[in-house]
Amino acid sequence: MEFELRKAKETIQALRANLTQAAEIELSSQERKKNKSSEPIRPLEKRALNFLVNEYLLKNEYKLASITFSDENDDQDFELWDDVGLNIPKPPDLLQLYRNGGSVPSSPRDTVDVAVGVELADLPGNHNSAQKPDLLQQQQTEVVQELEYQISLLNTEKESLAEQIRKLQ
Fold this sequence. Notes:
By secondary structure, the protein is mainly alpha-helical. It has helices spanning 2-32, 43-59, 63-72, 94-99, 132-168.
């Protein structure tokens, strides 16, 4: 049963990846043509816009309108962005899109590269008790050093911003 569920999830992910690639190819081929505002809305665009509109209605306490809207679009689940069918991150809400003129701002401060790893010694069942305290102490020291570095960067930025505020006043 679990195997079948896992296989079904893998199939769904593969289909979403194929759908995303097809949508990207379609977008790039249409960008070559002239942009026409009279062009009909594509199904993927409609699903994405429906999701964002429903989210806007809920956030701004238009609950009855949201219920009616979701009833009229009963072929779509408005609880999950994944139901839109694209393997792309969820865009900002409608208000942010409106304020930014449709462009999604990307600031280096908004993006962070992260990595996750698991050490064999950290897994349950591995009892290298002689090494663990030293390793744990080393890891904690590294984390403290990283946090101190980040604090110093933030303090420098704070001082810079305070200086800019003083200049503006």
